[in-house]
Amino acid sequence: MRLPTKEELRYHGSRWAWVVGLALLASLVFPSSATNVAPLLEPGAVADRDVIAPFTFPVNKSDQELAREAEELASTVKPIYQYQERALDSAKIAMHAFFSSVETAADQGGAAAILQVAKAHGFALGAPEAAYLAKGGKRHALERALSELFDRALALGVTGPGVLQVEQAPELIVRRRSGEQSVSRDQVLTYAQYLTRARAIHPDKGSSVGDQLYVRLAGHFFRPTLIPNTLETERRRDELRRSVDPSKYIVRAGDRIVGAHEVVTNEAHEKLVALHSDLVRRGAATSRSPGGVFGPVLRDSLILAIFWVLLVFYRRETYRERRQVALIGGLFALVLLQAAAVARFAPPHAEIIILPFMAMLLTVLFNGRVSMIAAMILAIVIGLQPVFHDLPALFLCVVGGVTAALTVRVLRRRSNFYVPVLIIALGYLAGALALGLMGSWGPGETSWKQPATGSAPTACSVAWGATTTTSGRSRTRSTSSRTRRAATTRTTGSKPISRPRSSRRTSRTGSSWPPRRGCPKPWRPSFRSTTARPRLRTSWTARRRAATAGPRARATTSTPGPSPTPPRRPLRCSRTRSRRRCACSRT
Question: Which end of the chain has the least Cβ crowding within 10 Å, N or C?
Fold first, then answer.
């Protein structure tokens, strides 16, 4: 892969710099919003004019206000606790299994066997506690007391240690099978209250060893029967958080946000910020963020780059001349500046943009295709500006520019001045009729308003183009079919060389002059044509001899005199390879 040299970078950079420059110019000169309806005035500033809401829009709450209101609403959700009946069954089964094993061990080995069985169940016992369990009456009393404790406490529902300490809700929802019940937070039993109830039904309160063993067994076989359902609780809280209305209040269309010479309050500032944000969302304004500044510049650069790519591939003679590229860039900049002035002072009248002037001047200097593409691209750039978001500026600019590019000719006669103005006015009339039929305009506005306001700048554009065409062609050295024809007429004093209508002939195959489109050989004017031609200073025979003679003899062969008609030479058709007359050969 070959890297470009400095000369190539300088060559292309000096021409493509116009693309970035025009995009920056468009972002700077055009208003940031439609008619500046939302000036971002700070609180305490004085408004210089009335600011009226152009449409209905909401004033949204700030992020802090939304978060605070969402949390306040979410805190109203009652936590959901699920009653687990399986936990109660598990505690009873584990307790009865332990005492059954202890009873078997007491019958077989006494206190030593009880220590081994307790260790197997994960419960560490001391020697006094093992001796206490070895007594059958004491052991049966403990088992009955624990069973009663489970029925009185765990069956009602007991939460785990420290669960209710982090719960701030005053009420809870307890789910039992398919039913729900709202209970007070104080009515739910905690682990500490469970131990308090266990001491209340102690079977042997006078024994310190029995008291300690009873409390330890109640804690060991404890299973929380009220489990917080965190997923369901958070789902309900999220639903309430999402249900918070982000709008603080609604501003109706036509409401006065702030009056002229009034101090901007905090409420008015919130409304102005909300209006500007809504304009940015609709595409009728640009924000001050880095993305809001760089985005429009990149968008306009990509659109304008299409025309420069056209010059690179299809108008290389224009792309090579820096003066011609500068002329095109200057015309683009002139139209953008005038369109920005229209956007600031009369945005509803996009038809007065002088896009037809640029189209006519490019048509005369180059050709109609270049002019038409330039007009459409510049119309897209203008129509995408936020100030023209809700207006048919793109449509009107395309109609005026393309019509001007296709109707203008060499501006040499007075009729060449009137005809483009009339045709462009008719184009504006057709566009106005289309807009009127779609928008149900009144007959007065549809019939004469758009053509009348568009014809005046068009007439000025034609007059200006007629006066600047000659100077622009001479300074930029631009060439086109029209400029070459005008130059030939001005130097020779005769009409351009063309085949007269009387010389149209039909070949033996039935084809007529000029040759049909698929013919590879272009048509050339005949030497026997009746149109006037500039006379040659050297005869054809003398030029033939000079071509075969040496350089010294070539200087003496030029003899003044009339140029005779050269002899006719048979031509071979490039398609049929025959010498017979066809649509490709000349007479």
Answer: N
